[in-house]
Amino acid sequence: MSHDHDHDHDHDHDHSHLSDMDVRVRALQSILVEKGFVDPAALDELVTLYEHEVGPQNGAKVVARAWTDPAYAGRLFSNATAALAELGFTGRQGEHMVALPNTPQVHNMVVCTLCSCYPWSVLGLPPVWYKTPAYRAKAVADPRGVLADFGVSVPDDVAIRVWDSTAEMRYLVVPMRPEGTEGWSEEALAATVTRDSMIGTGLPVVTEPAA
Ligand code: FE
To answer: Ligand 1 centroid vs 8 CA: distance in angstroms?
Structure first.
């Protein structure tokens, strides 16, 4: 029998070089594609989007705008979802956003104690530590200890408020504008805003702008 015509089964690929997780993800993907639930091109586009275009640089723009435009800050703190949409940040896992202002009295920190809910539209995909049971438990039990783990010290008279994300509600911490940045451009300010400063496990990092 000719090799070309005697079989209609799928070719058996050797997946032995793939991790267990890769194999599971591929299996799931092929079922979804086969049943017509997802378009493989759309999947590729999503992956590229979150790899290259959606990340903490989005949140940093929002924070810098809030620092320089009090009217925008007002809108951000009263209706974050709408204020983020003004800058074009909408969509997946960012549908119901709340912006939390850090103040001299309060430092905010975000966790998802149940799983890994995270504001994708402004921060991209969550860092690995965000999903660990250790962070999820300790953020609630000992937030100051978590800050110490991250090398951050917040004065004792500043209250630390921990916010538990859910599928319905995602949070963006707006850190305090660093001292000595008066007159800086929005772009230079955005460069000080780290991902962790918008989760509440870090602070903005100021490096002198190039002369
Ligand atoms: Fe979650």
So the answer is: 43
DSSP state of 190: H
User: Could you report the per-residue pLDDT of 159-210, keeping only the tens digit for each?
Assistant: 999 999 988 899 999 999 999 999 999 999 999 999 999 999 999 999 865 5
In the reported structure, the alpha carbon of residue 163 is separated from the centroid of ligand 1 by a whole-number distance in angstroms of 12
Neighbours of ion ligand 1 (CB under 5 A): 112, 114-117
* End-to-end Cα spacing for the chain: 76
| Nearest CA among 168, 183, 14 for reference residue 98 | 168
- How many angstroms does the Cα of residue 67 sit away from the middle of ligand 1? 29
Length of the chain: 211
* Element at 159 (helix H, strand E): strand 159-164
What is the C-alpha separation between 40 and 80, in angstroms, rounded? 33
Closest Cα to residue 167, out of 125, 123, 128, 117? 117
- The SS3 assignment for 3 reads coil
Distance in Å, CA 167 to ligand 1 centroid: 6
Question: Contact 56/189 with Cβ under 8 angstroms?
Answer: no
Distance 162 CA to ligand 1 centre (A): 15
Output the CA–CA distances (angstroms, integers) from residue 61 to 19, 58, 132, 145, 165, in the order listed.
37, 5, 28, 29, 22
Q: Which residues have a catalytic role annotated?
A: 112, 115-117
Residue 115: how many other CB atoms lie within 10 Å:
11
